[in-house]
Amino acid sequence: MKEIIAYIRRKLSVRVSLWVVFFAAIIFIAALGFLFYQARETVRQEAVSRATQILDKTSLRVDSILNRVEVASTMTKWLVERHPDKSDSMFVYSRSMLENNPDFYNCSIAFEPYYFKDRGLYCSAYTKFVGDTIRTIQGGSENYQYFFTDWYLMPKLLGRPCWTEPYMDLDVATNTSEMVTSYCQAITDQKGQMIGVINTSLSLNWLSQTISSIKPYPHSYSIMIGRGGTYFVHPDTTKITRQTIFTQTLEQPDTALTALGYAMQHGEEGMKQMSINGEDCYVFYKPLGKTGCSMAIVCPESDIFSGFDRLRRTIMTIVIVGLLLMLYFFIRIITRELQPLRRLAKEAEAIASGQFDAELPDFQRIDEIGQLSQSFGNMQQSLVKYIEELKETTAQKASIESDLRIASGIQMGMLPEKFPTREDRDDVQLYASLTPAKEVGGDLFDFYFRDEKLFFCIGDVSGKGVPASLFMAVTRSTFRTVSAHESMPDRIVTIMNKTIADMNKNHMFVTLFVGVLDLPTGRLRYCNAGHDAPLLVGVGVGELSCDSNIPVGFRPKWKFSQQETQIFTGTTIFLFTDGLTEAMDANKAQFQMERVNDVAVRILANQQHDPHQFIAQMTEAVHQFVGDAEQSDDLTMMAIQYIRKQSDVLMRKNIVLPCDIQEVPRLNVFVEDVCQTVGFDEMVTMEIKVAVEEAVVNVMKYAYPPEQRGDVTIEAASNDVRLKFTIIDSGKPFDPTIQAEVDTTLPAKERSIGGLGIHIMRQNMDSINYERMDNLNVLTLRKRIKR
Amino acid sequence: MNVTIQEQDGNMVAILAGSLDTAAAPETEKALSPLNDVEGKDIIIECTDMEYISSAGLRIFLGILHNAEDKGGHVYIKGINDKVRAIFTITGFSNIFEFM
Question: Considering the domain boundaries, does residue A332 fall inside one?
Fold first, then answer.
């Protein structure tokens, strides 16, 4: 069954055909049902009218026979009454009765006992057919005392002619008996005294045959019952006179049959539908005139409707065969019509499996299938085209993706990877993280040490993705380039801004925070170009106050302002991009500054604000907040903790020299003395001597105009870690640390004479630091003391 | 600062002794100026007794080298001590001078 359903589901032709045939069948059933009903009704009406007609005819016929009997009897009676005294005449009358009416069974003219003295007790002229001859005899005898019979007594007692109940007529002479019914009429003399009875009989058998010969249908039959319900005519001869219509109901109660019996007994006329011997029949019944009998024609329904049933069977057969043929042909036709579709399906399969050059059949049709085929062809061509394009695009995309991966690597490679910790430095430790939302991002951070300064920046380029990343790269390299020669954040940002704005055709911009932390002193100089203000996490948590500068990149002439603050040992500067405050959870709620503050407070309370821990905890807090939501923006954080501990000064010496290079030997003596005190060996002493000489000679030569006299102060101080020389002059501002250095790898011819001094200072000292303080140039040179 | 120039085995030998600091540089440069006129001979700078050199001294050395190379000559530095050699090394001068 399941397979059949699956088959039907798979075959459109079968399904459509089934539907069509199904509806056709419904229409046929409805039409034929109505037709059959009407036809059956008509046949029934026809049967009823036909049976009624036949019944009427039969009834008439019986009536006419009975009438004939009565007329003949009355005629004979008249004759007998005209000549009542001649007994022999009676035999003639009796005989002539049968001669004139050969279908009568017998005729008796019987007289009262001793009416004819010559005849004695019995005188009955009894005529009856024996074969074809008529025989008339004296009917009464010792054995047959007729005047006690019903037929003789009834007219006498009733005083009028009457029909007897059927009875058995015994022919003594031949000893044959026959069921008869008789019309009995009294004979009277002129005084009105009854002298005898004329009895004319009809054979019930003959009557029955007469009636039974009427057969409206092959299997219909007639029955006749008497007043008491006794069968007189019945196809089953054993029942005749022996059973009544009610006999059967005694054994098996049958209300329909009982009702029929009563109706017939009461001389009613009508039709009943009932079951006789398990067969549905129509019974038409009618009383038979004066006899008091009632006759019925039983017509089996199968007989009545046999023609109709045959017709119905034939039509049903034709319809069913027709529907089946219809189904078959429909399936065939639809299958044939859909043949192209199957081919198309096959072709589509081929195309789906990648054979785009599969040849499409040309159906030469203009119907829907033709159109489909054409569309299909167009689709195939388009597919080929699109696939080609797709291949190209995919290849391009793959190439772009690969490029992006490389770009991402390059971008990440631009960022510092090594972060100084407490193990590396005793003045600052730092950690940063950058998580782009896409492969490449527009956030940046950078830091590096130059002399004793930490240069750092954090920035966020407008937009995301590749354009932002390119801008970020430009910003970062500009920062490096500019800050190599500038130590003041405002100058760095202003120059960066001009550089970037000049080449910024796409109106992008970058918010930027640039800071320079002077490590020996903890002074932080910074310039904020529209970036989020950093947090200072030290004794408490607070925002670093920032001027409202504009972001970098679109106003080339903007002069950025610089701010300054003191960072105390232990304080962490926490810098971040808006990817932190605007980190979104699944409901698009933002992390916000309040949460950043709360987390910072918590971290501080737990004393876990060393840069790495700080960023780890902040990252975790953000991840917890964001949950499974996609990262919406680049997220960058940088934490810088100032950890320098000021040591006790063990030694302090100073010398003030006039700006004259002839004073250099004095300087060298001073430096040698200091180095000796600290305990440096000759080699290091030599290095320090050269470095300090270069620094001081610089001041002597260039700090003051030639005509102006000036001094240079050299202070030497040491703790147990370092020896520090501070060279102070009041000349014009001059930062030797941003001067170009000599390239020591060049061949002799290309080596210039200048630039050696700053190079020697850097090489020979551990750090070199310039500060302009209170209109003084302050240059610091430091050398670590090895113990 | 003492400077002595003498001819030895066909080469010009300049013997430097003392501290070649910025203060001594102008005087030393003047004393070494005859080397600029040398042609067809190699120059040997004898530094065994030179205790110290600053960038001003190095500039003089570079001047001598440029001049000699223009004329196709060689400049050799001889007997340099470790401390002074360190200055030559950090400034890259060790790459452009020939030592003997």
Answer: no
Residues of A in contact with B62 (CB under 8 A): 748, 751, 753
3-state secondary structure A586-646: CCCCECHHHHHHHHHHHHHHCCCCCHHHHHHHHHHHHHHHHCCCCCCCCEEEEEEEECCCC
Rounded Cα–Cα distance for residues B57 and B22 (Å) = 7
Mean pLDDT of all residues belonging to chain A: 86
E-strand ranges in A290-427 read 293-300
**Region A543-548: what's the mean pLDDT?**
88
A290-307 confidence digits (pLDDT tens) = 667 788 888 888 888 888
Q: In this predicted structure, what is the pLDDT of residue A716?
A: 93
Q: Do B54 and A749 touch (CB under 8 A)?
A: no
pLDDT for A573: 94
d(CA A567, CA A517): 8
Residues with Cβ < 8 Å from A254, sequence gap 6 or more? A248
Q: Tell me, what amino acid is at A512? A: L
Q: What does the alpha-carbon distance between residue A363 and residue B78 come to, in Å, rounded to a whole number?
A: 103
Do A222 and A241 form a contact (C-beta atoms < 8 A)? no
pLDDT (0 to 100) of residue A34? 93
Query: Quick one: tokens of A288?
Result: 């038979």
Residues A549 and A661 in one domain: no
Instruction: Please state, in angstroms and rounded to a whole number, the distance separating the CA atoms of residues A763 and A766.
Output: 8
Burial of A37 (0-12, 13-18, 19+ CB in 10 A): exposed
Asked if A588 and A713 sit in the same domain, the reply is no
Above 80 in pLDDT, residue A690? yes
Question: How many other CB atoms sit within 10 Å of the CB of residue A688?
Answer: 23
* A632 vs A369: CA distance, rounded Å: 51
**Tens digits of residue pLDDT in A252-271:** 787 888 888 888 888 888 88
Domain extents in chain B: 17-99
Residue A29 CA from chain centroid, whole number: 37
| Dihedral, CA of residue A395, residue A401, residue A402 and residue A404, to nearest 10 | 150
| B71 near A CB under 8 A | no
B89 touches chain A (CB under 8 A): no
Question: Does residue A730 sit in helix, strand or coil?
Answer: coil
pTM over 0.80? The answer is: no
Helix axes A465-483, A368-414, angle to 10 degrees: 20
Cα of first residue to Cα of last residue in chain B, in angstroms, is 22
Question: Which chain B residues are Cβ-neighbours of A744 within 8 angstroms?
Answer: 90-93, 95
Spatial CB neighbours of A400, under 8 Å, sequence gap ≥ 6: none
Nearest C-alpha neighbor of A696 from the set A712, A707, A678, A682: A712
pLDDT tens sequence across A152-166: 888 888 888 888 887
> Which candidate, A513, A510, A516, places its Cα nearest to that of A634?
A510
For residue range A499-533, what is the model confidence (pLDDT) as tens digits?
A: 888 888 878 899 999 999 988 888 899 999 989 99
The answer on A516 and A454 residing in a single domain is yes
Question: For residue A687, what are the domain limits?
Answer: 651-784
Q: Of A624, A642, A660, which one is at a domain's C-terminal end?
A: A642
Residue A753 banded pLDDT, cuts 50, 70, 90: low
* Interatomic CA distance for residues A118 and A126, integer angstroms: 17
Report CA-CA distances (Å) from A349 to A10, A380, A388, A782, B78: 16, 12, 19, 81, 91
- State the best of A659, A662, A669, A686 to mutate against chain B, taking most chain B CBs within 10 Å: A686
Total domains in chain A come to 4
Pairwise CA distance, residues B12 & B31, whole Å: 14
The DSSP letter of residue A552 is B
Determine, for residues A759 and B91 on separate chains, whether the beta-carbon distance falls below 8 Å: yes
- CATH number of this structure's domain B17-99: 3.30.750.24
